[in-house]
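[Automated response] Your request has been received and processed.

Submitted sequence:
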Amino acid sequence: MDYYQGESFKGLDLVTKPLARGEYEGCTFENCKFSNGSVSSFVFVDCEFISCDLSDVNINQTAFREVDFKACKMLGLRFDHINSFLFSVGFKECRLDSSVFYGCNSKRSVFEHCSLKEVDLTEADLSNSYFSHSNLEGATFENTNLEKSDFTTAVNFRLDPEQNRMSGARFSRTNLSGLLSKYNLVIE
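Generated structure:
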């Protein structure tokens, strides 16, 4: 497996000219197109993806360790198929719609100004995570660990406190309706 450290990749179409399979440490990917391609079994450590299109990319057994995604399009990603060892990611201004985090250990994840529409977070461990100004419309939470997570500025979520672990989770008074939606109450 090839090893790359501290390299910068800009404006590449990695679908027509794929990256070499390997370990990428401290690398930056900017304005790169990965969509519908594959980074299966790659290892990314302390990397940054900026304004990249990763929609529907194959991430089977891919390792993401201390990886940040900024302003990326990441539709339909299957994080439930990754190499979960030391999985640690942060997302800022990303579109993660229709992605799957089923069963992922994603403690302390940051979702800042993200779109998480129709995302499956079933049985994930998102304890101590931060959902700052993120849209969770249609997101599925079932048997999800949300203990000590921050939803104070999140919008459009529907959470059943009886179906999820939520001790110490933070909400604002303005978004409490997302916790009561199953009761069909009219909140004014």
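Summary generated for your ticket: The longest strand covers residues 2-5. The chain has two domains: 1-71+85-90, 101-188.
If you did not submit this request, please reply to this message.
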